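We store chain and fold; example below:
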Amino acid sequence: MKTIFYFGLFILFVYGCGSMDSKKMESENDVVEISNDSLDFKLLVFEPDFDSWLATKPPKGAYDLGYLEQKNRYYTREYNRRALIPQYGNLYPNTINYDPELDYGLELNYMLYMYYEFFQDKYNQRL
């Protein structure tokens, strides 16, 4: 269970920050950070294998934004439902704050969708 907790740690932060228009994607110490400061959103993925898994997947341009938003709404609803059920233990440590009414843009929606796909593959879960 400790291994699942360590690998299952995923946090989505929505926070206010400066009005810079820069986009960045960083990978340090097994943390993938995607942010767009002009939109005030940040996605952090704490998964050691996520980068190498993502490199084998289609690029974000292969997906329609509407498709990604629809899948993320569904996956987030199910993920959060499971996070609130104690029987799932540490596999779903936190709920994910994803508001379907907000425009997160293609990059963040793509990375969140890819995280859900990674999560399902790695932990043999079906959201």
Notes: Confidence is low (pLDDT under 50) at residues 1-29. Residues 38 and 47 are 26 Å apart (CA to CA). The beta strands are 10-14, 23-28, 31-36, 41-46.
